[in-house]
Amino acid sequence: MNKMLLALFVTGSILSTASAWAGKSDQVIMTEAAQKMVTVAEAKKLPDETAVTLSGVIVRKTQKDHFELKDSSGKIGMEVDSDLWRPMGLKAGDKVKVIGEVDTNTGQATDIDVVQIGKMENQSDKWTWYNQH
C-alpha cells in the first residue's frame, strides 16, 4: 500500500511539474489577451508571459519567423510561426492585430510570441484570422 501511495505521489509530482513547464495553452492566452489591448510601449513594460492584444503595421521581416510591428507608441519584435504568416503572405505594410504573450529575454529586447494574428483585408475593416494549430 505504501509503495502504491509513493508511486501515485511521484507520478502526480512529475505531471504537475511538466504542466508548469508547458506554460499556458493558446486558448488561455487568447482568453486573457482579449481583456488586455495594449500599445507597443505598454507591452514592453509588462512581465514575461503576460497575454496581450496589439495592433499596428508590419515594418519588416527581421529573421526567418520574426517581424517588427509598429504602432503610434513604438516598435516591437514578434515571433510568428511560419504556419501563421506564410498562408497570409505577411509582409511590410500589412495592418495586423496580434494576440500573444510578452517574452522578456535576458539581455535581449522584449518581444511578442504570437499565437493568433489577424490581417486587415483591403482596407475594408474586415479581419482574416490565422491561428496556431
From TrEMBL:
Pfam families: BOF. Keywords: Signal. It comes from Acinetobacter terrestris. Residues 1-22 form the signal peptide. Gene3D superfamilies: Bacterial OB-fold. This is NirD/YgiW/YdeI family stress tolerance protein.
